[in-house]
Amino acid sequence: MNRETSSFQSSDTLVVVDRSRRRRTLLIAAGLAVIVLIVAFMLMRAIPGDFAIAAAGSQSMAPEVLATIRRDLGLDQPLMAQYLRWLGAALTGETTGTVRGRALFRGCPVSSIPGGT
Question: Who has greater pLDDT, 44 or 10?
Answer without folding.
Answer: 44
